[in-house]
Write a structure and sequence with these properties.
Layout (H helix, E strand, L loop, with lengths): L1 E3 L5 E3 L9 H15 L2 H16 L11 H13 L5 H26 L6 H11 L2 H8 L10
Antiparallel strand pairs: 1-2
């Protein structure tokens, strides 16, 4: 996949068979950054991605991280056949996922070592299961339960 961004640049981004998976996009394009970045950088990436998902028809600001345009282009295509309830479910679960990545960055910054129970609670979110399942439901009009 090639991503065209507002600053006139074109960025090559190999997604192989995962071009429909935003978790793969997030991990491939920003995970290396979020694993070692400071809290403010991770929060900014999370804000950019979630804004792009919430506003997929709005052009991304010039000079913004390419992660925003990658997320926007993916989501603009993905929602073409998605139901309203599945879009909401994905946005809600993906937001919890990226916020959990921010929580991990905060833990690193604060040199916090969680208890096993606290770690497992956070890990259940950082593993990305709920947004992955929400992707499978995009074409379904399921009730608003989780």
């Amino acid at each position: 996949m090639t991503v065209n961004v507002n600053d006139g640049g074109t960025y090559g981004f190999s997604l192989s068979n995962y071009s429909e998976d935003p978790l793969y996009v997030w991990n491939s394009s920003s995970r290396g950054l979020t694993d070692e970045a400071d809290v403010e950088t991770v929060q900014e990436l999370a804000r950019i991605v979630m804004d792009a998902l919430r506003h997929p028809h709005r052009p991304r600001p010039s000079g913004e991280s390419v992660v925003g345009e990658i997320a926007r282009q993916f989501w603009e295509r993905a929602i073409r056949t998605a139901s309203r309830t599945s879009v909401k479910r994905f946005i809600d679960t993906f937001d919890a996922y990226v916020e959990s990545v921010v929580d991990q960055a905060k833990d690193r910054s604060d040199d916090r070592i969680r208890t096993i129970a606290d770690y497992m609670e956070l890990r259940r979110i950082t593993i990305g299961g709920k947004p992955s399942f929400a992707l499978l439901e995009l074409g379904m009009d399921l009730p608003g339960t989780r």
